[in-house]
Amino acid sequence: MNDIDREDTFFDEYDHRNGYREDRRRYERNDRRRTVRRQIAMLWGFFGLIVIGTIAALVYGYKLKHKATPLNTSEIVNSQIPFDADRSVRDAIEENYIRYLNMAYILIGKYPDCELIKISANVERNDYKWSEDFYVAEGKLYYNYYKDGEALGKPGIDVSEFQKQIDWERVRATGMQTAMIRVGYRGYGSGKINADALYEQNINGAIEVGMETGIYFFSSAINREEGIEEANYCLEKVAGKDIKLPIVIDTEYVYEDDSARTNNISVEDRTAAVVGFCETIEAAGYTPMIYASRDQFIRYLDIDQIGKWQFWLAAYDTPVFPYHTEGYQYSPYGLVDGIETQVDLNVWMK
């Protein structure tokens, strides 16, 4: 090998060795970068899990706290209003907060010592202004439902054998348009179904004078089977009657007797009885309806399960009830010409 060949060989080997070293260094740099990227990705993933877990815990805690918890005014007001704020500012903020509460919750009890029950998103709401839309118009004797001065409802009564003999002609002359007639009841001690002694007389009399009628049954059902039994009893009694209003299950807490068979049953059993009744009435081609007080609807029935049927609300003060309401019983102390006793007064909006 001559000198020139040896020189070329030397430089080839030198370039090869240095090129290898450079490739090695480049590989090691890339490997370190890949390792760092993997570590950063792992840290972000771990951080993300912590954030998601924290948010989930906060949401669960919020729902748990606001499901039915006492409202503490001092915590609300003092945490949101500067201690030196003008009193009118404090009042305005608190008023807005209460307005929000009534849009999102049902307040059980008097503010601020009340429970908050979340309003269900699955049940249609009403758009009534209860203190403005229901009143006795000039020249009338009884409440009705009005919007912009136009009467959209119908005044009515509900009666049973306790109202004794009724002169339906005189009742109709007062302006009453609707009558709900008790068809029967289940004994809240015995559990036995009984007929209302004046059912036939009352429903025939109301229909004859041109009043729109429906029937109601005072329920003491403790399960679905008994609810269905009560519905079938109503269907048997209403056959051949020209009723235009619903067939109603009347579900109440029995204050007259703490040992009443329905007072201590579960929400699930009471709801099952009502659902069994309504499904049976509906299957027979009639319109079912549920009569109850606000607390009965909210505390003792599963509103989501019954929300598709019509509601008849009993409320003797200005109602605070968000859900759709087709019947409104506003007084148990009505006086109506043709009836010698006090009688329940209603407005029908449907």
Specify the number of helices: 10
What do the pLDDT scores average to? 85
Order of helices and strands: HHHEEHEEEEHEEHEHEHEHHEEE
Instruction: Give the biggest beta sheet.
Output: 8 strands, mixed, barrel
Low-confidence region ranges: 13-17, 62-79
Name the shape in a single word: extended
Query: How many strand segments?
Result: 14
Structural class: alpha/beta
Radius of gyration, taken over Cα atoms and rounded to an integer in Å: 36 Å
CA-CA gap between termini: 115 Å
State the share of residues found in helices, binned by percent: 40-55%
Q: Which helices and strands, and how do they pair?
A:
Elements: H1 3-66, H2 73-80, H3 87-104, E1 105-110, E2 113-118, H4 130-133, E3 134-135, E4 144-147, E5 150-151, E6 154-159, H5 168-173, E7 178-186, E8 193-195, H6 199-208, E9 212-218, H7 224-238, E10 247-250, H8 267-283, E11 288-293, H9 294-299, H10 303-306, E12 310-314, E13 327-334, E14 343-348
Task: Describe this entry's structure for a reader.
- Helices cover 43% and strands 21% of the residues.
- The termini are far apart.
- The chain is α/β, with parallel strands linked by helices and 350 residues long.
Protein traits:
350 residues, alpha/beta, 8-stranded mixed β-barrel, 3-stranded antiparallel beta sheet, extended
